[in-house]
Amino acid sequence: MRVRRNERLIYAIEVAFALVAAILWATTPQHSFTVKVYCLAFMLGAILIVSLVLLGYRRDKYYLRAYVSRLVISCALMVAIICFALGLLLGYTHSSFPKTASELFGIFLPTALVAVETEILRYVIFRSYCRYKTNVAIFTTITVIMNILLVLSATSFVSFEATYITLCTAFLPIIATELLCSYLCLNAGLQPALIYKLIARLYPFVLPFLPNLGHFLYAVVALMLPALIFLLTRNLLLGNLKNQGRIKRRNRVIVAVPIVIAFVVVISLVSGIFKYQIIAIASDSMIPTFERGDAVILEKCPAVDIKEDDILIFKHEGIVVTHRVVRTRKNGNSRQFITRGDHNENEDPFVVEESQVVGRVLIINKFIGFPTVWLNELFRTKQS
Questions:
Q1: pTM (whole model) above 0.90
Q2: Parent domain of 297
Q3: pLDDT digit string (tens) for 108-154?
Q4: How many domains does the chain have?
């Protein structure tokens, strides 16, 4: 009798969930994306509270949830490292990293709330009634439609190409993400599904810069990660308690591989053996553009590509200097650069020759350069 009651309650909750998505789409077309996400977070929170009251919350007792959670994190880390390694060849671009409190509360917070509420609601429903997996299919379909509607509200289809790009870079990843979350929640519990959803939704907001993969490679990666996690999780779940020793050894390998790759990428970025290099800023001469403790990614380029207003990185008397180009001038067959720090009143009392040019600043990252600055000061390394 309780099963039949739960079945009716779950279908009612899913209908309410679908109505929330439909009402949000129909009544707020003129509102901003941020307003819609906040409204969705509020309405999902109300549905979740009602669901917890009516259905309760069953403790997550999946014995493999910790293994699967580590697998999800390791796969995401490994794919991210590979993508950032590709960025050494393809370049980097700014992300949606929130720099102020208004930016944080504007989109990061409601996005996180929607992700958490959706996954807890998914778990409550799946654990309460899973007969014939009908409710799994219904709930997954609703979440796919809800996220697609959100994307549609923030997208304008000005051409067939724009439509195709949205399909590949937004719609297909949404479908893959929701299918994987349902699979993880159903077979491994709330924890791995929630971890993956937070990674998939929030990584643009927690990383200061991203590799510039382009539409095609981005779509490939967005589909490859959930497929990889699904295949490894399925293989893991096919084992049993007798194979836990082998499972633990496999998890150690999965965790170790991304760490090794991460060291290689970091060393490559710091050493400057590729086109891009990361350096720390040790002075305040470029305030407010950046300041001591920030890090910049420089693009190595010939002096002929440097233009006025570029932030130039060059060597002067053994010191690496990062100042803005005020103007350029010809000196025979070569160019010379007049530079000045944004915080300085006067131009630099020297001229930068082509042979001194290292590159130009491509991306600025706040605060992550402090460890390098401290180490340089500790060993009395000259760097500006």
A1: no
A2: 276-378
A3: 888 899 999 999 999 988 887 655 577 788 888 888 988 888 887 76
A4: 2
